[in-house]
Design goal:
about 350 residues; Rossmann fold; 2 domains; 12 strands; about 45% helix
Length: about 350
């Protein structure tokens, strides 16, 4: 179960689990009625059960209806295990699982009370996660940062949470970040939402005198706002807004620097995909990002909201093709060592067996 079926990191993670799980188990997916994940799940033969009342944000009336929908599904399909992804699905799944005596595993794709989350939302999410944690079950954190944060905030106990790093399959597509070029390409793949800090990236690029082209992949509620902001900063001629795009690997192949500037993160799939392509990374040091990007080895990190730091990091890589090549090769090595999908899938299935026993 997952709250949203839109294209995103949590959905890509879940899809990779579904591809393998569908060959071993009778798997069903419960989520909203339409979206990227629904289409992909159906294509691999996974049954999809739409939950019409599973909506964002928190809505007590709709949440109770979603709980009733899920309880009806549990009673009709009688699952041996529920695996929930994302906060809203995690809360509703654990309540329904407890009420129907079904084991439940929850994967937290970053916590909504991490540093950088707005205070009002952080307080609400913390309370819901704390209450859900009292219902029992196992929790998977996608980064060691998230596991430690959960323990520090007493969301769960040490014996009921493990870290299983995200993994992405190898697509065989490589970039050439060290190739000399008159106009290096910077790419950021991220939804235009409050979590992602496109504004800081645009401000950082405003006074960069070196040639570059910025490619922004993704959609979301702040897309139009950022297009207007780019125009006001005089960057329109240097930016391509791709919107939602299925050709991300091909865009990364043409990229020289990958950027992910955020207010908060778990362990971003987009960074792992850029590392898979062999790209140097410029990112914000939030959440588990530093577990993938080692400053001065395969990328450069800046503090949250640090315009000058992001600008300096980008200029450093824009001006040095040899350094881009070295960081890119190190990214690829780090991907191969830590972020292939097989360890993620294997450890997740081991968690299932642990729950069953």
């Amino acid at each position: 179960m997952i709250t949203r079926a839109e294209r995103g990191g949590a959905q890509s993670h879940l899809l990779e689990l579904l591809r393998v799980a569908a060959t071993r188990f009778n798997v069903q997916l419960a989520t909203e009625e339409q979206g990227f994940l629904v289409d992909e799940a159906k294509a691999i033969g996974v049954s999809v059960f739409p939950l019409r009342h599973l909506v964002m944000p928190l809505n007590p009336v709709e949440d109770l209806r979603a709980l009733r929908e899920l309880s009806d599904l549990i009673r009709s399909s009688r699952p041996d295990l529920i695996h929930a992804h994302s906060s809203k699905a995690g809360l509703i799944s654990r309540v329904a699982a407890k009420a129907n005596s079904v084991p439940c595993v929850f994967t937290a794709h970053g916590w909504g009370f991490s540093e950088g989350v707005p205070a009002g939302r952080s307080s609400i999410v913390f309370l819901s996660e704390w209450l859900a944690g009292r219902l029992g079950g196992m929790t998977i954190a996608v980064s060691e940062y998230d596991r430690r944060l959960a323990l520090r905030r007493h969301i769960t106990s040490p014996d009921r949470i493990v870290t299983i790093l995200n993994g992405v399959p190898d697509d065989g597509i490589r970039a050439s970040p060290g190739q000399p070029t008159a106009c290096p390409v910077i790419t950021m793949v991220a939804r235009f939402s409050r979590q992602k800090d496109h504004a800081t990236l645009l401000e950082a690029l405003r006074d960069v005198s070196l040639p570059f082209q910025l490619r922004l992949v993704g959609s979301g509620p702040l897309l139009n706002h950022m297009q207007v902001r780019a125009a006001r900063l005089g960057l329109t001629d240097r930016i391509v807004f791709h919107g939602d795009c299925t050709a991300v690997p091909r865009i990364l192949q043409e990229t020289h620097i990958f950027a992910l500037i955020s207010r908060y993160e778990g362990l971003p799939i987009s960074i792992l995909e850029a590392m898979r392509a062999g790209l140097p990374i410029v990112a914000t040091d939030t959440g588990g990002v530093s577990e993938a990007v080692r400053h001065g080895w395969n990328g450069l990190l800046a503090s949250r909201g640090d315009v000058l730091g992001v600008r300096s990091n980008l200029e450093h890589l824009l001006s040095d093709s040899q350094l881009r090549a070295v960081y890119g090769a190190n990214s690829r090595s780090q991907y191969e060592a830590c972020f292939l999908p097989e360890p993620m899938v294997t450890r997740t299935f081991e968690m299932y067996r642990r729950v069953f026993s």
